[in-house]
Amino acid sequence: MPEPMYRQIAEDLRGKIEMGEIAQGAQLPTEIELMEQYDASRNTVRDAIKLLTARDLVETRPGQGTFVVERINPFVTTLTEDPVTSRGGGEQNVYIAEVQANRTSTSPKCRPVEDLQTYRSRA
Known about the structure:
Number of helices: 5
Number of strands: 2
Oligomer: single chain
Strand order of the largest sheet: 1-2
Distance between the termini: 44 Å
Helix content: 40-55%
Mean pLDDT: 80
Largest sheet: 2 strands, antiparallel
């Protein structure tokens, strides 16, 4: 059974967005233009846009139109770097030291943690 028309339209538009044919932040064609382009009814086009909105690919701004959502690439930086692993600044060593300190602690609040490798394998 073939896909409903609104899904075909949504899939086509999704492909264009992901391939960069329709840029992030760009306005989609109007409903009338999409109706003509896909030879579909207004309700079908609206259903396709609803599907894209549900997938967080587009957003509709009343009185302005429908726009491709701009994806924000988070800026992540590591302040220090371990030259051996090229990862963070050795935070795992601090964690291991804390675990070992808890093993030898006599405080009733601290209970010993089993072997670190066993602990990690369960996570």
